[in-house]
Design a protein that fits this description.
This protein is α/β, with parallel strands linked by helices. Helix 7 runs parallel beside helix 10. Helices cover 50% and strands 14% of the residues. Strand 8 and strand 9 form a beta hairpin. It folds into two domains: 26-193, 3-Layer(aba) Sandwich (Rossmann fold); 198-379, Dehydroquinate synthase-like, alpha domain. It is built from 18 helices and ten strands. The strands form three sheets. Strands 3-10-7-6-4-5 form a six-stranded parallel sheet, with helices on both faces. Bound molecules: fe (ii) ion. Fe (ii) ion binds next to helix 7 and helix 12. Keywords: Oxidoreductase.
């Protein structure tokens, strides 16, 4: 489905607010959707480059489903299964080279955020065989990638609908989104794959989705459209909140809710971007090897506290918390402790103060002291 809405209206105070909504990814979210919609998947090209990590796409059956869908529709494929967690630019280039040599003309990302983000970057670079990896971060927005299909097997990133591809930049000892915007053509979201994910992955990725909601709502780019997605998504998220800190048992219906929440979070940040918790998380993930969702989640209480507004209280109420302290305790129960040594705190604060993109998204002004307070409230 293609929805393109554009609106500009006058607010009460008279300033002009711009509203923009663009969501060109066709999404199927249902059991067995790879099988059911295999012909649409196969129709995107003559030969697919399948992009996965080493294990989970095999163990949860998603890779087999994709292979069968392509085979039954007479579409060729090759497999690149070497995507590491937080993929590097170097890995993107190796997969790109394989795709070009083998004559692939579309890319299927299967897994969590790492393979799905990688698929977008690879699809872009396949269209630019003469460019080296610096092109990924070159200024200007290039959307001329091969078609991309995303098949999520975790429940946080929302990468199946976002145009973002976050890669590790070893030279800068952090992660960052590539400059270019690559929207997937098709997302096939089957909640059945989540049944194979370890509890820690469900917890971490579901908290990543919560981070997307909170950072999208508390964001200078937020509009009525993006906040509509957040409100709807957080209502869904609150239904499985108590599963994450083991207050109740997980039931079958939770998998679909978890996946839907993640996708709605992705749609929300597509329009706003993320803000300080994501910006801080990249340093923790790089240096301390902490999973993305966990690294984001630990900074959420500090971000809400720093906003200290009616808006953050509304957000807490939407997910059933009365007080920020109650929320902080919940995050601690779900994620456990994270260590952030002093030199890493200093590095993250310095890095974020130079990150104009993430600072711009934050709706309140921050300086070194404010960032320090966010970290300290969240971790100490
Ligand atoms: Fe995230």
């Amino acid at each position: 489905m293609l929805i393109w809405l554009w609106g500009i209206y006058q607010t009460k105070k008279g300033q002009v607010r711009k509203m923009f909504f663009y969501m060109p990814t066709k999404v199927y979210s249902e059991e067995q959707c790879v099988k059911r919609h295999g012909s649409e998947l196969a129709a995107l090209g003559e030969k697919a480059l399948l992009v996965t990590g080493r294990h989970s796409a095999r163990s949860n059956g998603s890779l087999k489903d994709v292979e069968e869908a392509l085979e039954s529709n007479g579409t060729g494929y090759i497999l690149f299964d070497e995507i590491e967690e937080n993929p590097s630019m170097e890995t993107i280039m190796r997969a790109r080279d394989l795709g070009i040599v083998q004559g692939a003309d579309f890319v299927v990302g299967i897994g969590g955020g790492s393979p799905m983000d990688a698929a977008k970057a690879i699809a872009l670079m396949m269209r630019h065989p003469d460019q080296d990896m610096d092109y990924l971060y070159q200024k200007g927005v290039d959307s001329s990638a091969c078609p991309v299909v995303e098949i999520p097997t975790t429940c946080g990133t929302g990468s199946e609908v976002t145009p973002y591809a976050i890669l590790t930049i070893h030279a800068k000892r952090t992660k960052s989104s590539i400059s270019h915007k690559i929207y997937p053509s098709l997302a096939l979201a089957d909640p059945g794959y989540l049944k194979f994910a370890p509890e820690s992955v469900l917890q971490s990725t579901a908290i990543d989705a919560l981070g997307h909601f909170l950072e999208s709502y508390l964001n200078s780019n937020a509009t009525d459209y993006s906040r509509m997605l957040v409100r709807g998504g957080m209502r869904i998220w609150s239904k499985f909140r108590d599963v994450l800190d083991r207050k109740r048992e997980l039931i079958e219906e939770d998998y679909q809710e978890m996946l839907n929440a993640a996708t709605l979070g992705g749609m929300a940040i597509t329009h706003t971007g993320t803000s300080l918790p994501h910006g801080l998380s990249y340093y923790v993930t790089y240096e301390e090897k902490v999973a993305h969702g966990k690294a984001v989640g630990i900074f959420l209480p500090g971000y809400l506290k720093a906003a200290d507004s009616q808006t953050s209280r509304e957000l807490l109420e939407l997910i059933g918390f009365q007080e920020i302290e109650e929320f902080r305790a919940y995050i601690g129960r779900v994620l456990g402790e994270v260590m952030m040594p002093e030199e890493l705190r200093a590095q993250a604060v310095r890095g974020l103060l130079e990150n104009a993109e993430k600072l711009k998204n934050c709706p309140f002004s921050v300086d070194e002291r404010a960032l320090r307070e966010i970290i300290e409230y969240s971790l100490d």
